Amino acid sequence: MIVVELAARLDAKVLCGSEAALGRAVRGAYAGDLLSWVMGRAQAGTAWVTIMSNMNVAAVALLTDVSCVVLSENVTPDEALLVRAAREELVLLSTPLSTYDACWRIREGLADAAVL
Amino acid sequence: MPDVVRLHYDVDGENFMAAGEASSAVKNVLRRLGFGEDLVRRAAICLYEGEINMVIHANGGAIDVSVSPQAIEMVLQDQGDGIPDIEQAMREGFSTASDRVRDLGFGAGMGLPNMRRYADSLEVTSEPGKGTRVLMTLRIAPV
Ligand SMILES: Nc1ncnc2c1ncn2[C@@H]1O[C@H](COP(=O)(O)OP(=O)(O)OP(=O)(O)O)[C@@H](O)[C@H]1O
Ligand SMILES: [Mg+2]
Fold this sequence. Notes:
- The complex is a heterodimer.
- Chain A is of the alpha/beta class.
- Chain A has one domain (3-112): Udp-n-acetylmuramoylalanyl-d-glutamate--2,6- Diaminopimelate Ligase, Chain: A, domain 1 (3-Layer(aba) Sandwich), CATH 3.40.1390.20.
- Chain A has helices spanning 3-9, 19-22, 35-41, 56-64, 79-87, 99-112, and strands spanning 13-16, 29-31, 47-50, 68-71, 92-94.
- Chain A has a 5-stranded mixed beta sheet.
- In chain A, helix 3 (35-41) packs parallel to helix 4 (56-64).
- The longest helix of chain A is centred in the C-terminal third of the chain and has 14 residues, at 99-112.
- The relative contact order of chain A is 0.24.
- In chain B, strands 1-2-3-5-4 form a 5-stranded antiparallel beta sheet, covered by helices on one side.
- In chain B, a hairpin with a 3-residue loop joins strand 2 and strand 3 (71-78).
- In chain B, helix 1 packs antiparallel against helix 2 and helix 2 (37-58) runs antiparallel to helix 5.
- Chain A binds chain B through residues 33-37, 39-40, 44, 52, 54-57, 59-60, 62-65, 80, and chain B through 16-21, 23-24, 27, 37, 41, 44-45, 48-49, 52, 104-111, 113-114, 117-118.
- The structure holds adenosine-5'-triphosphate and magnesium ion (MG).
- Adenosine-5'-triphosphate binds at residues 49, 53-54, 56-58, 78, 80-83, 89, 94-97, 106-112, 132 of chain B.
- Residues 49, 52-53, 111 of chain B line the site of magnesium ion.
């Protein structure tokens, strides 16, 4: 499953992301809002599901090398986060789903793609 | 590559929205030098946690990174208030972060534990009222 397929499964808006970034494989998911938990635990290539919307999200996403950031609960990113994400070609998705439901659908997507 | 690559960054204490820029820059340099994903990732995590701590807890500081064929050494030095009890600060969950900073997602008390986990060695020295020095080393496995 690639990022743009994940976006469709999550009924998510693609807020930003280059074509290359949207074509990246999704290898799993990590959910969390406390940045140093995410920093220490999120694996490269996973989708990070969070309700945090400030610019530090971009730094953590880039350093952990996650495949995309999924903002759950229809969270809208701060302008500064959007600008930084666009500049760094980081994918930001916004979904109406809760964090739980988003993770559930990611799991389904991975199972359908036989990643799991 | 030259024998030792040295990098220096001054970290602004005011602007914690932009924090992480030095860590990103170092990550890119390490990638370009051809280090493996895992090493680059561990170095980036360690440096980011140290960088953000200087911004949040010490009003900024300086980062010096040196990369030799044997190791990546990262020194973070600040002139902040220091850490009165380092053992306590190293504990998972311990944090003195303000509510304002917690609202941004910091303050889990996991930064120093992350550094200890991902660096091969971590040395924290601090003098209350004068500042804190963090030294982290990541060994480079011979190829
Ligand atoms: N450079 C520093 N100067 C002064 N105090 C520091 C410094 N670095 C860490 N501390 C102290 O050590 C505590 C623990 O640091 P740690 O990085 O583990 O957690 P945190 O920064 O509070 O939260 P998190 O890193 O999870 O966002 C801090 O809350 C602070 O009291
Ligand atoms: Mg910290």
